[in-house]
Amino acid sequence: MNIEKKNIGILGLGVSGYWAAKLASSIGANVFVSDSKSDINQIYAKELTDIGVDIELGFHSDRILNSDLIIKSPGIPNDIKIIQDILESNIEMISEIEFAYRLSDLKIIAITGTNGKTTTVTCLYEVLKKKFNVVKSGNIGTPFSEMIYEENISKKLNTDFCILELSSFQIDDIDTFKPDIAMILNISHDHLDRYEDFLDYTNSKMGLFKNMNDDDLIIYNHDDNILSDEIAKMDRVFTAYSLNQNFSTFYLENKKIKSSHSNETLHIDECELLGIHNVSNFIGVATIASHLKLNDKDIFESLKKFKGLHHRFEIFKEVDGIKFINDSKATNIASVQVAIDSIDKNIILIMGGLPKESDFSAILEHADSIKSIIAYGVASDDIHHSLSESLEVLKIEEFEQAINSAMSLAERGDSVLMSPGCASYDQFKNFEERGDCFKSIVERHYS
Fold it and tell me: What is the pTM of this model?
């Protein structure tokens, strides 16, 4: 793609917008950035201004309609006026992922799914780095544009594979993007505040495969019923992974991950990361690694040592027989259910934040595992309404008070699980801040 001297418009000055602007400018484009917020990262604004990028803040003017190409940040919804104006003007509008892809020669492994993306991308990175020079990018925190910018600056291709974590928002605005390997982990209800319905959200996820062909490797989780039903509708060659030997090269048997290629095994109780959902993700990772010619012994050794991530089912403290688990990254109900299944009993569950949906009744499927629920923040009324007839639900507005209440209820043998099932934006700027706050309150209490 030749963008030298072209007018490139960028909607949104978050981290992906910043790197897209920096990449476009480095290639000689005339770059204009528009963000409806005024309280953006001032370092981003200054650095871009210093290299000749024009920026407007606090509103979207019609100036962006003078662009030859517009790059839209994934957090911007499609129903705002400026998006409608762009569509009516027939200006090409793409995602930051699509933009970086058009300027890239990297081989790409793309991973999506409602839950477990970041853990799986990080795990695959740890496994593959034994044999390859790999980087991880996308929704995991490092924009794809940053990777391409760094490759361009170095003037040589140092990377064997870029592992991209992709959200549905990032997939929505791709056009020609085609990974060499793609894997989808699962599909469950999420982001219904941004999509017309669940089918619309599902179609967004499946859009990752739209440009792939039979020479590419497309892997999916056969054990996810919704995903399997969607795969069955598509005329494409797929590779399944599963806990069941009938559908997968790697599988679970007698608490061991086994391989049809060798006699090597991995006992799941020896792994640092526990939970059947993590075993499933391990099998998906092993499937990709084996395809890339890593041997089973090295794959299993890396999986055994993998410790997981902060804020994702992080058992960070045990005191007086009480476990404290930080699962702040669980921002939808399906994630909460996975966390509950990993504990199974005596759970004091902390939920709340900014809800993505109003019905939390799916949690009732796990009622026997839950002693009580502390509901905080904007979602507390919906949580109470959905669950209080069958479970003890205590409503507390402020997060710190909610944590203190949970600790006062906890007894030996209990697990205090902070798995909110909601976005963090009512009281925190992101899930990391929420998780750190939870850990800080607990540590301070027991200091």
Answer: 0.81
